[in-house]
Amino acid sequence: MLRIAVPNKGSLSEPAVEMLKEAGYRQRRDSRELVLPDPDNDVEFFFLRPRDIAVYVGAGTVDVGITGRDLMLDSESEAVEHLPLGFARSTFRFAGTAGEWTDVAQVGGRRVATSYPVLVRSYLRSLGIEPSGVVRLDGAVESAIKLGVADVIADVVETGTTLRAAGLEIFADPILRSEAVLVRRTGVDEPAGLDVLTRRIQGVLTAREYVLMDYDVPLALVDQAVAITPGLESPTVSPLHNRDWAAVRAMVRRDQTNRVMDSLYDIGARAILVTSIHACRL
């Protein structure tokens, strides 16, 4: 069986489980379950701490796992990113007391507090910057400056509201843009079954990104309509009972749905219908 590590808690857990469900895999009903075999799909799930998943994958204890790109890079494990998953996106940034910091070079010779010490050291080293120390904290990093633990912090930033409430502001370029990723062990052949898992997840990602659009259009306007909805390879164009009209079906990006509908209507298309895609293989 393909052994898959899944986050057991935190912001990664629920969307990871939902994605695997959409991909057709069995998922646990009791949060206390740590191991869940899925013999119908020839896989076995292990529910682990998100921070530990890359370590287990790198050691070969499990074959693949879902974790954050930031956690993978901070683990110093033999795990490598196999596929970005499109959820749990975040930005990793430096922040300091408002009005005092403008450039990452100022971090040299200063203390940095973070939950990702390996990632921070590696980033600063790549810029030739040496802090006086990197203090690892497991949470509430934004309090480190006020409590005198550090001069500056490096943390995951979503809206920045928590930082502003603590009297801090973001400065310098992002250290990393992170999201959930599927990771596997580096330096070894891909495990059996990973190709199936990859296709299934890619199918879920595509189904989330696209919708199916159907509409009727006069034959004389088919070329104009197809230019608006080119689909992935090419749209399906079918004759209607009224021979002056054709039916068109194409995949359209979900975030462009209403704009595309407006454009089609403007050129004369009618009966424009949009359907969600449950699953697909491309």
Automatic annotation (TrEMBL):
Q: Where is the signal peptide?
A: none
- Subcellular localization(s) per the UniProt record: Cytoplasm
Q: Mind giving the lineage of the organism this protein is from? A: Bacteria, Bacillati, Actinomycetota, Actinomycetes, Micrococcales
The protein's role, per its UniProt record: Catalyzes the condensation of ATP and 5-phosphoribose 1-diphosphate to form N'-(5'-phosphoribosyl)-ATP (PR-ATP). Has a crucial role in the pathway because the rate of histidine biosynthesis seems to be controlled primarily by regulation of HisG enzymatic activity.
Which top EC class is given?
A: transferase
Q: Where is the ATP phosphoribosyltransferase catalytic domain?
A: 49-202
Extract the GO molecular function terms from the UniProt entry: ATP binding; ATP phosphoribosyltransferase activity; magnesium ion binding
Question: Is Magnesium a UniProt keyword of this protein?
Answer: yes
The record's section on SUPFAM superfamilies has:
GlnB-like, Periplasmic binding protein-like II
Task: From the Swiss-Prot or TrEMBL record, give the protein name.
Answer: ATP phosphoribosyltransferase
Q: How is its activity regulated?
A: Feedback inhibited by histidine.
GO CC, sorted alphabetically, is:
cytoplasm
State the organism of origin.
Cellulomonas humilata
